[in-house]
Amino acid sequence: MKTATTSEVVSFEDFKKEVINDYKIARISRECSLLGRKEVLTGKAKFGIFGDGKEVPQLALAKAFQNGDFRSGYYRDQTFMMAIGAMNIEQFFAGLYGHTDINFDPMSAGRQMGGHFATHSLDENGNWKNLTQQKNSSSDISPTAGQMPRLLGLAQASKIYRNVSGINQTNFSENGNEVAWGTIGNASTSEGLFFETINAAGVLQVPMVMSVWDDEYGISVHARHQTTKENISEILKGFQRDEGNNGYEILRVKGWDYPALVETYQKASKIAREEHVPVLVHVQELTQPQGHSTSGSHERYKNAERLAWEAEFDCVAKMKTWLIENNIATSEELDEIDNKAKKDVLEGKKVAWTNFTAPTKAEQQELVGLLNTIASQSENKVFIEKIANDVASIKEPIRKDILVAARKVLRMIIKENTRATLATWIENYTEKIQPKFSSHLFSQSDKTVLKSKEVAPTYDATAEDVDARLVLRDNFDAIFSKYPETLIFGEDSGNIGDVNQGLEGMQEKYGELRVADVGIREATILGQGIGMAMRGLRPIAEIQYLDYLLYAIQIMSDDLATLQYRTAGRQKAPLIIRTRGHRLEGVWHSGSPMGMIINAIRGIHVLVPRNMTKAAGFYNTLLETDEPALVVECLNGYRLKEKMPTNLGEFKTPIGVVETIKQGTDITLVSYGSTLRLVEQAANELESVGISAEIIDIQSLLPFDINHDIVKSVAKTNRLLVIDEDVPGGASAYILQEIVENQKAYQHLDSAPQTLASKAHRPAYGTDGDYFSKPSTEDIFEKVYAIMNEANPTKYPNLY
């Protein structure tokens, strides 16, 4: 007899041992679900979503899952995580309680609700671990089908490692032998991201196995409302590969049939791993014994007939019957396993709760002692003692309880000698606790962008002016030569060298896998980049125009931007997103939705270079760091003239650092990107009427002016105008808050700080559409003049 995971012949006793161990894992997982639900209903946990009913197929998947493989999954895969040894009982409950210590909740250090799983790709210093020597799970997210685009990239990485020479595969791949395994609930296959990913994987022919857990419901809504023909594999039959066409291998299997599941997943693994062909596994006739989540019971939406069927075809119960019928174990032996699972889960839950509450109880006692000491010296002794007693009486305190009490007492002793002691305690406590909830939005490793240093471009004395796109193109050439792991892909990026010729000739030189055309599918372009970046490659995902970024903003916001944060620094995806935008023509090609972008993707750097040399410098900087970033090139700047640097691939634009591009004394003008050229023209015209304007190029919106250089300018000029082509209240409001509030520029102002933005509508078509929709040189001139008129109406009389 052969085992599920090898081709070696083993004895019946070894087979029996393996299968019974699978049953033990299934029973433990089921008991975790049942007890986990009770913990939510008693209030110890806030929310519960569990993997009951999906245990047996996940065991089969785990058998085919090898070191180096990656999972990108569904928030019910707890049995799988247990089966690959990536989660135990205590860790399951630590996640349910939201334990903020990553040693107890390795999935997210309490930042995500239970059911969201991850392994550690990085050590505590942010360095890559050897991913080929462990089983890997990319960090889950809640948005349904949101795991799909990333899955595509995880699979594509294997194709790159297998087919592109010169890449150092150490820590990341064994010649592209790894499979990316996706899981999803059947109802979530209704999402566009699912279909977009399925199509893209079929086109790319990547080693991806996609499992659909089909229990006929999406929350309370039956499959007849979700899927045509109520059957996802039926409607995807057109993707089935045949003799003359690439496509998918599509497999169907019953979710309660243990031996068939094992055989199916071994077949799927072999096809994907050896042939690099995607596989869809439709796992049917599954159940969901407790309903969708603790927010509702399935008895509310399933009829008696369905409930009876689910009881009979429960996959764990069916596995137990199979074990007995095939003389692998007796009923008594399995009952003993069931009872032990209950006992072990209960004990593990208790240990997890003790570990979760112990630090907070110690902090509770510390504060109570301090408050009693303060009370003994206070005029408000009675009130403070009551607060101290109230805190002490909380049986299961949370940190909010502690800090609320301390801050209320601080108000009572504001004029007393003990105020400083309590204030210091509160500040120290907050400094200690806040990072447990807020750290790792950005990298905290030695490769953070904040440690990058500027390297100026150098020029020959005879440097000629060239089309700016050539600076970008030749710098990309230097990048691709210097970094074999770097690749770029997007709509029209390959054969024609992008719509603005910034990649002219690069595909011919570096091949179709490193400089690639892709279909019109922005979300999965992002997903390709995220997944490949998570596996050690350095992808540049190109979105043709800034407006089209809206197709991908959900993936950027929910997945990429939160990755380091939601794993407490244990996973990263240093993806570079390249796009172009700002001024052009018409509603759909000239938007500048920067306010929406910067507020949706905190966790990704947003860089807005004013020319192509600056943009090239950003790419050079980013490839030496380990953080994701969006680079917005100026769409109307490719044909403008710039000098060709001699140190291509080496010069670096600093991130988070502004640049003063014109000195002035009367007013500080702050802007970025294409608009700066109008600002410069207006500033020259203002000189003719005696107004000296200082111009500052922001360069990066996230991070923003880390050296606080703008406020130094305002301290000199005492006036501030922010010019932006986003809608009113968009990026200009963010910029103004950064300068006036965070940099405290208000104390230097002699005039009200102002903004000049575009109209609230989308830009209209044509040159006149641009002029009447976005700030013009005349708008900037007259806005500055009006500010100076208010300050000195005699010197600057009214224009109107």
TrEMBL record:
Check the record and name the SMART domains matching this protein.
Transket_pyr
What are the EC numbers?
1.2.4.4
Source domain of life is Bacteria
Q: Which residues form the Transketolase-like pyrimidine-binding domain?
A: 466-640
List cofactor names only. Answer: thiamine diphosphate
Q: Which residues form a coiled coil?
A: none
UniProt keyword annotations, A-Z: Oxidoreductase, Thiamine pyrophosphate
Which InterPro entries does this chain map to? DH_E1, THDP-binding, Transketo_C/PFOR_II, Transketolase-like_Pyr-bd, Transketolase_C
What does this chain do?
E1 component of the 2-oxoglutarate dehydrogenase (OGDH) complex which catalyzes the decarboxylation of 2-oxoglutarate, the first step in the conversion of 2-oxoglutarate to succinyl-CoA and CO(2).
Protein's name in the database: 3-methyl-2-oxobutanoate dehydrogenase (2-methylpropanoyl-transferring)
